[in-house]
Amino acid sequence: TSSSFTANLSASSSTLAYDREFLRTVPGLLMVTEIVLGLLVWTLIAGTEYFLYPAFGWVMFVAVFYWVLTVFFLIIYMTMTYTRIPQVPWTMVGLCFNGSAFVLYLIAAIVDASSVTKDLDNHNYNSWAASSFFAFVVTSCYAGNTYFSFISWQSRTLQ
């Protein structure tokens, strides 16, 4: 099924609208999942003494950075703000955003998983292990959104 998200991507409008159908699309559901589970990743780490270990600082940076940007893009897509700025190649922006999120989240998830050890700090082990699991789930969501962004970009390029 296609929502007005793909149909109106290049259309111009003078008022903000609300796209109720976006959250029913696979990219919309993936974006909400990225926000919820990304929040889990960084809150699980933030509740520990992560600042003592530089590896977890990197994971925090990636998780918070992409969480904020994903919330930003969800607001843009839900309010159809992209229709007011047709000069921006939104399909390319989405592809670059999701692709970079996938790559950096994959690196952060690997760093997170490889840094979790009971020898490091037994008190924070469960939080760090859970954050590692959720980081890989969020990575797979960004991979899915990268795929859908690529399909959208490719269809716009071929027109």
Automatic annotation (TrEMBL):
Which cellular component terms (GO) are annotated to the entry? membrane
**What positions does the domain MARVEL occupy?**
22-154
Q: Which InterPro entries match?
A: MAL, Marvel, MARVEL-CKLF_proteins
- A single MF term (Gene Ontology): structural constituent of myelin sheath
Pfam families, sorted? MARVEL
Which membrane topology term applies here? Multi-pass membrane protein
Instruction: State the compartments where it is located.
Output: Membrane
Q: What is this protein called?
A: CKLF8 protein
Naturally occurring in which organism (per UniProt): Motacilla alba (White wagtail)
Lineage of producing organism: Eukaryota, Metazoa, Chordata, Craniata, Vertebrata
What is the name of the gene encoding this protein? Cmtm8
